Amino acid sequence: MSMQPIISERSLREYIRKDLGVENPYTGNFPQFYDLLLSSGYVDHEESARQLTRLLGRSRSILEIGVGTGVLTQELIERGHQVTGIDLSEAMLQQARRRIGCHAELKLQDVCELNLDQKFDAAVSEGGVWFFVPRCNRLMLQSHLAGVGKNLQALRKVAQHLKPGGKFAISIHEANADYSMPLESGLFLTEFHRELKRGIESTFSIHTADGVILSHGVQKFATFGGAEQNRLFAAAGFGDARVVSGTDYLLLERH
Prior knowledge:
By secondary structure, the chain is of the alpha/beta class. Helices cover 30% and strands 34% of the residues. The protein has a single domain (9-253), classed as 3-Layer(aba) Sandwich (Rossmann fold), CATH 3.40.50. The strands form 2 sheets. The protein has a 7-stranded mixed beta sheet, with helices on both faces. It is globular and about 55 Å long. The chain starts with 8 loop residues before the first helix and ends with a strand.
């Protein structure tokens, strides 16, 4: 359950400014806290796996983009899917390997340079690279990748790794908002958002109730509106994204 931020954005930004060690939040010590974040209700991966199985069908070969520590991967495997997961963070992948063992292929790869000797029935981005957020009565595509060129390159790579007619499910997240959320072990996640010219900047920390910061980071997300995202998808080899009623996903299909 989220609530008003319990530390100030100014104090968090000042702390990060003094700590020059934060360039990629998924290296450093953040992976240590990632599972704690997920187990505290940040994302319901069991429900996500149920929805994805309903969307994609059973016993599918799935490419998971931005696998993190493998929580969703594990849920998909338990539902009979064959999963290959990629991530840019070796620290995240190490935790995923401990969780999953040999039950999935886990690769250290950049989606922009994706090179796997396989074509898949489906691909999934649960926020690891792309996700949608509601804004002004429409859904905006947000991406960890900067600019149109990088996103087009990466989307083309995903399309090239799908079978003809293969499906690509991209999750819908809650609207960007400043908040704090209690975690297990008496810790809190606090996140602030700032509008950029072509996207959103997210500043987050994991901290104690009295404001002692244990992990923190800054992420920048490129944002694409309806017409622009549809042009991206079409140029990459996909049809338009469509909302699937009763799910938290938009679905694309490879031409």
